[in-house]
Amino acid sequence: MSAPPDTPDTPDNAARKPYQRPLDIKRGRIDMGHGAGGKAAAQLIEELFLAELDNPYLRQGDDGASLPLPGFDPAAGRLVMACDGHVVSPIFFPGGDLGSLAVHGTINDVAMLGAQPLYLSACFIIEEGYPLADLQRIVRSMGAAARAAGVPVVCGDTKVVERGKGDGVFISTTGVGVVPAGVSISGRQARPGDAVLLSGPIGAHGVAVLSQRESLAFATSVQSDSAALHTLVAAVLAAAPGAVRVLRDPTRGGLATTLNEIARQSGVGMVLDEAAIAVLPEVDAACELLGLDPLYVANEGKLVAICDPAAAPVVLAAMRAHPLAREAAQIGSVQADAQQFVQMRTRFGGRRVVDWLSGEQLPRIC
Amino acid sequence: MSAPPDTPDTPDNAARKPYQRPLDIKRGRIDMGHGAGGKAAAQLIEELFLAELDNPYLRQGDDGASLPLPGFDPAAGRLVMACDGHVVSPIFFPGGDLGSLAVHGTINDVAMLGAQPLYLSACFIIEEGYPLADLQRIVRSMGAAARAAGVPVVCGDTKVVERGKGDGVFISTTGVGVVPAGVSISGRQARPGDAVLLSGPIGAHGVAVLSQRESLAFATSVQSDSAALHTLVAAVLAAAPGAVRVLRDPTRGGLATTLNEIARQSGVGMVLDEAAIAVLPEVDAACELLGLDPLYVANEGKLVAICDPAAAPVVLAAMRAHPLAREAAQIGSVQADAQQFVQMRTRFGGRRVVDWLSGEQLPRIC
User: Fold this and answer.
1) How far apart are CA A195 and CA A186, in angstroms?
2) Considering the domain B55-179, what is its CATH architecture?
3) Can you tell me the ipTM of this complex?
4) pLDDT for residue B71
5) Domain range annotation of chain B
6) Which among A59, A281, B299, B363 would be 20 to 30 A from B312, CA to CA?
């Protein structure tokens, strides 16, 4: 409702679209920022993709769509579908690779709708000259991740492009799953007063990938947090039926961008507590060195849960009982705010606005 | 059973795998042939992808998978899922573009399982610097094709890669649909005696795309046949319930490769009648000029139906009553053949083996 105090970087309060001017479709060109998951990506999706492909499912605005299915008993739930392109560079990084990332990323998008992921498709676009041994390593890792998660890759396609027209391997995956009846999770459902929970320390995936980039090689022991979160989601939903309103994995654009997306979708604001947001010391050190803010660095094995505040202790306990969320914490709460600001109480007692990612902080991070 | 007469190009009869030596995974590299849909692609899929991702759904070996779904009434049918990568070059060609092709290709893969296509996902991998106006043209065409077919794009993703690491735009699409109970269509089901039907003249898509390639520009009026075939499939299945055993769209690798795939999957041979396989005169002329065999040129709006011979007249009549299959014809029949040869009676009264595509005849045709 009110402009936040103490915010020299406050964006134009009149315009709560994360971007100011419309896309210049006539003369504009794609830049790396359009793929970074921040403001530019949101604008491209809204003004070009949604405008042309418009339908009620796409308009749901979550990381996947919830769909009616003829022949499917509505009392049993709904079908969901989510898709993900993976262009991470380098393809192999500490804690994962393109193959496992593609499986985890899409399973997580399906799970964030409250669904049990069931099947994956995988489309490979491979550059001529790519070593078969490396391709096997990627596909083997994909198979292992799919088996570990119990979500098989049931169909696929393979295309090859000339040398210099691709970059090793790109993988696009689509996942389908079923949301049980009675479960309703969406970025549109955050309400003032709700608790904002985070499953663990942020920034590890982005830093792990960056640490492998040739031009930025530095010594760090950081491993990607890439993981399939569907069993964590199932545990959380079982612990507090009906209490969880929003689930989302803070990938591209990091925690800051994810929370801004949710604030915008739900038409609310949030206040975060900086001290409650965990960052591993080695991630913090690497970010310092690279001039990155961990709030904007991608994660591939973390989730944000927004829930009824009365149920927050139960939800937190269920998270902490799961091996992938031992350090779960409440990091803030939702508040009424027509301006949809995500604010943060800093460690030093001040307040600042945590805005959308506006640049391309980490291109090709997933 | 017997080696075909009059076949100087007969492959090794002892080995009916379409390839002789195993992949050299240790030292081998991807070449354009691995993406062309012929022998090399089949080997890559079998020895690398299937070996690593192995599961019963992927092993079905069709262009998509038929899947059980908890909560879905088996009496209502089964869920199917198919996916397709699209890297066609150039992106705009006579009769279509990357956007419409991505919709048609995936709808067709779903329809070839006998299913009603319901939803599509679409993942875009875009090269930095690509004009927004061209991207809008692609997405607009995709939206129009999806609306015309009644199959919406319900979820998507957008990734951007650096200039020189992609080639304009690549689109990967996944489709889901429902196969009605009682319908069972698969490449595994061709039986000796079955009729082999083709919905119309072949080769138009490949020639239309090739005609636009800079280095091979030549004057031709050929338009791609790119079209969504799901209403044709529905009409055929309704006309002769239970009679159709195999449906497939002869895309990459053309009619010849598609029939060899089916022969291999079903463990049968086929005898085709060259005179019955229609080729438009302008497609024929362009193929002559380019040294291409239309049997190996991709189609994006044709289907092969293999059915009970007693029902062939009814199936053919249903096809010809549909605007996309006015020139449907029986082009041959299935026969017992442990060697799984696809043979052709030539116009001159001889016989020859129609083998798998072995090179890369037309790279990036879809």
Assistant:
1) 15
2) 2-Layer Sandwich (3.30)
3) 0.94
4) 78
5) 55-179, 195-353
6) B299
